Amino acid sequence: MKTKLCLLYGGKSAEHQVSLQTAKAVIQALDHEKFDINPIYINTEGKWIKGEAITGPIESVKALEFSTGEMIAPNALSTSLVSAPSESEANSGYDVIFPLLHGPNGEDGTVQGMLELLNLPYVGNGVLASAAGMDKVIMKNLFAQAGLEQVKYVWFIRNNWESNREAAYEKVEKELGYPCFVKPANLGSSVGISKCMNRNELGAAFEEAFQFDRKVIVEEGIIAREIEIGVLGNDDPECSVAGEIVPKKDFYDYKAKYEDGNTALIIPAEISSDTYRELTKTAIQAFKALDCSGLVRADFFVTSEGKVLINEVNTMPGFTPFSMFPLLWKHSGVEYPALIERLVELAQERHKDKQ
Ligand code: ADP
Ligand code: MG
Ligand code: MG
After folding, report:
1. Which of 62, 72, 174, 256 could be bridged to 48 by S-S, CB 3.0 to 4.6 A?
2. Which residue is closest in CA terms to ligand 1's atom 27?
3. What is the structure's pLDDT at 75?
4. Does residue 159 lie in a domain region?
């Protein structure tokens, strides 16, 4: 019997277009003999639109951006998701939901919470890991508690900063100094992130970051290589080879990630076996510190002395065939179609474990 898969993609976040590319690539890679593919598109206004089952190859992402179709009202979401996706097997619901969403309202535990309520198996991290991974302060606090090394950081709430900016700047200068990185606590894709060299830039960076979030984290800026590891699994996760990101710009900002396309990805990264061992050990510890499941991409800074610092885990990393996570697994012997099938299996395994 075919697995009835529901792909959830698009979304209101800055990564809408990326999500569409991912959906197209996943549909192309899936074996249509094994999977029934049912699309749900979330448009830029956040409306959920259910499309017809996809039975063949698709020409372009345009074909996935439904403007008409069954609009799913929030209060009807549950019945729509658990009712029959195909006429032949009425009322059996989807076997697995695959959220191909990044950022707030997709990667942050909200969609995951809804799927929990509906008791549906879904690919990737659960509510807790997704939410903790989306908030850089909470994530770093959990890493600290697990004894992982990371850069120094402080954080602020908008109202407190507004009432005494001077105190905030002094705290940053006393505890971190320059350069420092200012980031909205709850975003990804480098949106709203600035590197600051002095107090003027710090003020502007706070203004910018607070546009995106009421909570802002400031980190000590370091000079280091950026190395990433893919982690796959549930209770006994495994690591991929390591990859290095070499941004051509000052840092790996939004443009470097999605627009320039000239950031070099070096896979496998040229690192010693000792460093690789340290990275994989830390990646698994980070995965466990947030109680992750399915997948994460663990991102590190590695200094010239070979010191390994965890930067973040991404609970729904970029997932086009040209993104780091799938490429890391390809170099580790797991091709894109097999990776997708593995994730679906892991979703079902975790769902069974919970019952
Ligand atoms: P996001 O979740 O948006 O990817 P990151 O914390 O990974 O946010 O920051 C984006 C990029 O900014 C990193 O890939 C790196 O190039 C740079 N960066 C972030 N924090 C630091 C830091 N503390 N020191 C040096 N570079 C940093
Ligand atoms: Mg991130
Ligand atoms: Mg990052």
Report:
1. 72
2. 221
3. 54
4. yes
Length of the chain as a residue count: 355
User: At 185, which amino acid appears?
Assistant: A
Q: How far is the CA of 60 from the centre of ligand 1 (A)?
A: 32
CB of 193 sitting under 6 A from ligand 1: yes
Query: Does 252 fall in a domain?
Result: yes
What pLDDT score does 90 carry?
46
Q: Give distance in angstroms: CA of 67 to centre of ligand 3.
A: 32
Which residues constitute the domain of residue 260? 133-149+223-354
- Based on the fold, state whether residues 346 and 334 are members of the same structural domain: yes
Q: How many C-beta atoms surround the C-beta of residue 108 within 10 A? A: 25
Most confident of 43-47, 54-58, 89-93, 131-135: 131-135
Residues 6+ apart with CB under 8 A from 5: 30, 35, 36, 37, 38, 94, 95, 96, 97, 98, 344
